[in-house]
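We were asked to recover a plausible sequence for a given structure. The inputs and outputs are reproduced exactly as logged, with field labels preserved.

PROBLEM: sequence recovery
POSITIONS: 284
GIVEN STRUCTURE:
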């Protein structure tokens, strides 16, 4: 069984695949063009491959409105409801594809008001067509959350002053998607100069700042929404891009295993870093 659910920016939804909106056909689950970028030196035979860039994704849905109980009044109301929910003026919404084996989501916008051709059309049945554009062509999994946290394992009695040095935690995060996955990272205080490192690639993100109890940083490494936000104990947010160490890289999870390490200066027993991400796929 397949269902397609569109949720607009206001949280309104319509689902194709259940009554009264029956899914007839869907195109665009996989077929996306690619622009192959190459260069050629003087007198070179052929060319040298540089990169490939995927085009926008077009998703087309054919559906039937069936209102056996409410009749034409119900059909008319359903047409109005679909047009309201998928209104392109509302901007990007989320399209969720679901079958018995997989659930994937993608950000889309309708490229027109739904089309209702003449046939088949009766008092209780109406055929409909709607096309969506996905500026980012990748389907994504539902969100994953990793919570590397330091939990006390041993206790020792100490007398006098005791100073903690650098502490760290490592874990392996496996990205079995089709491309690198951007991250949302949350550093929670108390922590001094918290740093996350991807030892697989040698990249790191370091916050050159002390975070106190109740404060945290939220870092987004996606190309479209790259940001660094500080949230104080009262929940107030502000942009603090300048707190990021200049040698930092807004890295992503590469395909395969990623050896992720969290470090900070000083005592970070009980400190928490949240890592949230979606795996990205070229097709479903």
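RECOVERED SEQUENCE:
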């Amino acid at each position: 069984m397949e269902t397609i659910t569109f949720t607009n920016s206001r949280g309104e939804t319509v689902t194709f695949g259940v009554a009264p909106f029956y899914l007839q056909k869907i195109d665009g689950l996989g077929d996306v063009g690619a622009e192959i970028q190459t260069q050629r030196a003087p007198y070179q035979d052929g060319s040298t491959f540089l990169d490939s860039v995927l085009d926008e994704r077009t998703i087309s849905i054919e559906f039937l409105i069936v209102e056996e109980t409410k009749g034409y009044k119900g059909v008319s109301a359903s047409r109005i409801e679909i047009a309201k929910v998928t209104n392109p003026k509302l901007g990007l919404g989320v399209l969720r594809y679901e079958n018995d084996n997989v659930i994937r989501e993608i950000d889309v916008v309708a490229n027109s008001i739904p089309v209702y051709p003449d046939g088949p059309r009766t008092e209780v049945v109406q055929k409909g067509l709607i096309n969506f554009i996905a500026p980012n062509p990748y389907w994504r999994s539902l969100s994953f959350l990793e919570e590397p946290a330091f939990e006390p394992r041993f206790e020792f009695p100490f007398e006098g002053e005791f100073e903690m040095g650098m502490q760290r935690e490592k874990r392996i995060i496996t990205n079995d998607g089709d491309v690198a996955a951007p991250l949302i990272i949350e550093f929670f205080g108390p922590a001094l100069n918290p740093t996350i490192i991807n030892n697989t690639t040698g990249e790191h993100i370091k916050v050159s700042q002390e975070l106190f109890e109740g404060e945290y940083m939220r870092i987004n490494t996606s190309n479209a929404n790259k940001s660094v936000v500080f949230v104080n104990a009262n929940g107030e947010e502000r942009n603090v891009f300048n707190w990021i160490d200049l040698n930092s890289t807004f890295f992503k999870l590469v395909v395969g295993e990623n050896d992720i390490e969290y470090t900070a200066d000083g005592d970070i027993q009980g400190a928490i870093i949240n890592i949230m991400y979606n795996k990205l796929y070229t097709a479903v």
